[in-house]
Structure formats: structure tokens, C-alpha cells
Design goal:
alpha/beta, Rossmann fold, six-stranded parallel β-sheet, 28 helices, binds adenosine-5'-triphosphate, helicase, isomerase, P-loop_NTPase, DNA_helicase_UvrD/REP, hydrolase
Amino acid sequence: MPGIVFAKTKDKLDNSVKSLVMNFLEKLQSDDTTHGLNIEPLKNVSDPRVRTGRVNDMWRAVLFKLNTASAPTYVYYGTWPHDKAIDIAQRSVLQMNPVFGIPEIIEQTMPENEEERVESQGIAKEPFAEPSVPRTELTWTNGLAEHGYKLDFLIESAGLDPIIARKALLAPTAQAFHKVTDKAPDWQGLLILDLASGKSLDESKEDLGLIDQRTLPEELEQDKHEDDVIADGFGKDAAKLQFAFIGDTPDALRDVIEGGSADAWRTFLHPEQRRYADGSWNGPFRLSGGAGTGKTVVILHRAKTLAERNPAARIIVTTFTRTLATSLNQSLRKLDSNLQLAQTAGTQGTFTCGVDSLVSQVFNSATPDERKAALKEVFGEAHASSNFRPSGVTAQQWKDALESTDHGLDPELANPTFLEQEYISVVLANFVASRDAYVKVPRVGRGTALTRPKRLGVWKIFEAFRQEQRVAGNISFPELAAVSAVLLRHRTDAGKPAIADHVLIDEAQDLHAAHWLFLRALAAPGQNDLFIAEDSHQRIYGQKVPLSRYGIAIVGRSRRLSLNYRTTAQNLAYAVRLLKGAEIEDFEGTPEEVNGYHSARSGPNPSEAGAASLADELDDVQKHITKWLDQDVQGNMIGIIARTKYQLQKLQSGMAERKVEVRDVDHPGDGTKPLYMTMHRAKGMEFFKVILFGVNEGAVPLSLATDGLAEAEKNDALLRERSLLYVAATRARDELVVSWSGNPSGLLPAASGKVSAS
Ligand SMILES: Nc1ncnc2c1ncn2[C@@H]1O[C@H](COP(=O)(O)OP(=O)(O)OP(=O)(O)O)[C@@H](O)[C@H]1O
């Protein structure tokens, strides 16, 4: 039976052809002599291995036939209409890269560009003059030229194809540059992007798993037939970016073909992603990376890998909200429909759940005596009633506690934001159950200092809050997390095993101290216990939490992803600019840089659209939506994102007046209508087209969120507002429109008269 290697399709396959290609490959896989496949060599080819095959009357597949040891291996390159397929087949070469020994398919230059081809081939053989870089796009600079790369270095040391290297070096615009990287063999495209973004060749080689073959002992491959060497090469990390072996399972074949580029993450991992998905560490591991760098994709693959390694393992995948957890669960099923999913935490298989639901599950599964002991430790004897229901805490509850107390505090401390943060980060995090304990507890990392009298005043409010919560029969989710953490600790102290073997945590930047106490206690410290994916730039809730204080030591086990798969280079540049000037720190207080993130795709510049009035802004939104729907963009791939629900109500009624149907993201209907949501709700989502609506002065940053706070809390709240805007702007895959009426938000480049990103 022939083997098949599938190349990630760069040209989009029409849906109607996908099933035909499936049929074709299934037949080829069972017998390449099957009648009707017409696997034929061609004349005037650049590579004698090339073949075409008949998909139907109109469509031809382009393949390379390798005469490998046991049975032939076909490398499927793609399917095109007959004449185009013949042309591509005649121009394409399957070869081993001379520097890194990676199989690659190079399409020779189009015949109409014969002049360029001759010129470029000459370059490979002879010394050449360095091309000068035309600067036709004022706001874009060619990163390769900027970092001083020379053509001979790119060819000789970086292993780039001469034509590709030259085109990349000469690219005058972002679009032209990305056209080259997009068309190039995947690893070459990524290497160019790395170098252009400032990575050194050595760093990029390490990330892509590239090893210079010229430094290896020669005899290794000596006895092998050339075709076998190529076939083996498909197993190398950098080759796996673009090529996948299709085993004997038709399911895998179907996935790869039907999924198309939107599902490429299921098969074609970046070597770095693969490393973090498969790696093993003797303790917690942290994976950071900007929005859209594939952190979630790594978590999904890692869950699969861990389950494959040990089918009896109890794996928990968790994240900040229930909606995100549901989406993780769906993606896991997509990734591997055979993956054993557990129904409850602590049983064999992979269990996916929002972190607060997980907390509740642990609490509910304990006996009354166990709960009582844990409640006592968190609240002290007075508040240890177990008769309550978990609930969120509103600002009003803090206001009620403030009003019922004679605390004597300044407004900067006597406000819900300060109190809630203090309660979670100091009181719950340290299991403070009494006034005396609170007066003594270290408040490391808290921005605002408290004297003893102030602490006494603050404690009075906490007492009142606890009292009112108990009377109402409520327990807040952070309180429950602290209680469940104690429950887990008591279990371990009693010699019972931990609930999970591996805990994988997504969107970790938003978890609070009590969550971390709980998560730490879920798995026993040891091999691959915790895997933490986070982006400090996207922290939109709560406070930065130093993990080391909760028994989670990640020193030396922390890596960062830098290639953005979601957002175009133009949108990424814009979003990153929104963060400029903000001092963002990671869990342990180390400054987190936004430099170095780069994107593999190009698109239109984001547009900033200021309107004189709300009515005008709504007119603009209507025009954008109508235009996109007319262009056949699927309705639910258009996202309209605003800071507040109040703005969304205006949007909704404004669109209804204009006869444009839009839907709340939580009630999406049949998928044909654009979806609207708040910036908080947009976390973790993505759309082809995004409108950030109502980015006005006063709305972002929201005055309500920052008014009346002490300096430290205010700075933190402002940072979160900035991060919200960053989260919202990075939801766009292709096109981003930022709109406002009246004065723009002071966080937008427009407010300071800067030009929009390019
Ligand atoms: N190896 C890959 N090949 C193709 N697409 C990929 C790959 N990795 C990630 N993607 C795509 O990039 C997009 C972003 O991925 P993902 O959601 O995992 O990123 P993230 O870092 O978790 O983003 P965020 O922090 O913004 O939630 C998704 O559409 C995903 O399918």
C-alpha cells in the first residue's frame, strides 16, 4: 500500500472539491494503479518525480512519487484546475534543502517572469550586488534589510531558496513581504519572519529545530536511496510544519483535507508548539505569549499527548470562565474524537471545566465534616456555617458592608475595588480568620501601605462583609476557592492521593490568589503537574499574582511564544501600540516585553473612524457590516465589541433602526448574523472582521472603573483598561475597525495624532 504525505494546502480548496480529493486520496492510498486515478508522469518537468492524478474531469492533483523501500510514497502537493495543475507540476521541485536537510517543494518562477528566474538563478552561482531596498511604504520597513541581512548570508547560512531570499529582501511593502513568506516552504517563511523581527539566526534555528546538515558526519545517510532520505526528512520538526504523514487511518486523512487552513492547528504545529505540547518538566511550566500565538492550541495538544502517554492519567484542563471551558472542550473533541473525556474531576481521562465550577465540584464532593473543618480554617468558628450557595460578589455588597461599619477610612481605601483585592490577595490567600491575624499578616506586593489603625478599620469592613454574606446564605467564589484549597490539603494530609495527575491552565493571567492555592493543591508536586498558559498583556481581571508564594515555582521552566497565528501584521502592530508605555509585569514582577511578536499574515491597515455623533457612528457600523455581508463573510465571523453593556444596547437598537440584524454572542442563533459582546466577553474569541465600537473618551478607560481609587489601584485599573482594548483589538483575524463618536479614547493612537499602524 502506498504511503501518503500531505502538504498543507496554501491555495484554498473549494468545498465541492474537498470530497473529490478525499476520494482520490483514499483510492490512491489503497492502490495507486486503481482505474481512473491516471497517475501519470509529464513532459518538460523540473523534477522527474512529479505526477498528476485525475480528481475528476476538471481537477488534477499534483503529486511527487518517491520510490521508497517497501512501497512508493506519494507526496500530495495540491489540487488545481487541469491547466493550472499541469503548469504547477512542470515548475515544481521536491528537494532536500542543502543546508538543513528538510524536504521542500519549490515552485520555479512563473514562465512569464522568465527574466527574473534567469537573474535569480544567476544569483545562486555568482557573486552579486546587494539589492537596494525601495521604500515605497513610508510606515513599513523591511526587517531583513533593517537588520542588515545580506543575500549570500540568507542563502548560504539561513538555507533560503535564492529566489525567495531575494524577493523577501527586496519586498517594498508589508503585503509584498508577506506574499513571499506565505508562498515559501513554511519553515523558510517563518525563518524570514523571525529574522525580520530581530531574532538571530541561531535563535530561529533553535526554535524551528533546524540543524545544519553540513556539520553532521556524512556517513549517516550514505547507504540510503535519495528517495528514502527525503521520506525520512518529513519526520523532522521543521518539515512537520507543512507536511503530515497520513497513516492507514482514513479519519486522519479526512481531517486534514476537510479542515482546511482553519483547522491547520490540528495537524501542523510549529516546532516550538510541538516542544511545549510534548515536553516533560519536573514541576510547573509556564508558557507565555501574546494574543493569538497558539497557547490554547498547545494546551489542547498537550492534553492529547499526556493522555496518549498514560491512558490512565487524570488530566484536568481548566480556564477562567465556563464559556472558554466549553470552547476548549469542543476543540479537544475536534482534535481527537477518540480522546477519553472524563465526566468528573478526579476520574481517568481528560476533564475540562471552568475553574470556579471545578472549585464547586471539589467542595460538593466532600463530606459535611470535611467541609466544616475547611470552612473553620478559612473563616474561623463564627462564620463556619455550611449552609450557603456560591455567588459572585457585586460592588453593592461591599458598599453595604461599608455603610454598616464605622471604619474611619479615607475614600481611597473605603471603596469596593481596594477592598475586594485586599480581601482576596491578603485575607483569603493567607487564610486570615481573625482581626489579630489580619493585623500581623504580611501584605507583600500590595501597592497601598496600611498602618495598624487602618488595618483595624479595614478588618471591620471584612467582618461586616462576612456577616452579611452568611446571613444572606452566600459564599463568594474566591472564598469557596480558598475553602476547597483547604479541603484538598486536608485530603493530602490524611494520606489520600491528589485529585489530578496533570492540570493544564489556560488564560492564567486572570486567576486570583485563591484560585492558585486551589490549583496547586489539585495535583501533587512533581513531573508535569501544572502547565500554565498566560499572557500578562491580557490581564483584565484582578491583580497580578506572584505564583511562587503559592508553592508554584516556575524558575527555569518558563518560555514564550512569539509568532502570532491569528492576527495580521498590521492589526498586531496596532494592538501592540495600544500597550506602548504601559509597564506590564509577569507573575513574578519581571517586565513583560511586547517587542518581538510577529505575525505570519498580512492584511489591510486597521482603520480608525471618528464620527461627529453616535448616529453617524452607527451609520458607519451599518455600512461596514453590510459591505462584509455582501462580500459573503459569514455573519458570526463579524464581531462588534464595546466596553460596556450600555453601549451594546445602543448598538443593538441603532442597528434595529437601520434594519441590520445583530445578535448577542450568548444567543448567536443560526450563525448568519454578526455578533456583539463586551470587551470582557471577547476574551479567547476570534472573528474575521472586528469593529471596536464606542471607543470614546470616558468609555475607555471607563471612568467608573478608575474614579476614586488610590494611586496604586488606579494605575492597575488603568492598565487593565488598556489590556481590555488590546484583548478586543487582537480578536480580529483580518480586518479591524476602531470607531468612536465625539472625542476618541486617550488610549488610541488617534488621540495623540499618531498615524494608524501599517
Ligand atoms: N500551528 C498552527 N497552525 C495554524 N493555525 C494555528 C496554529 N496555532 C494556532 N493557530 C491558530 O491561531 C489562532 C490563535 O490560537 P490560540 O487561540 O491557541 O492562541 P492564544 O495564544 O491562546 O490566543 P489568545 O491569548 O488571544 O486567546 C487560532 O485560530 C488557531 O487555530
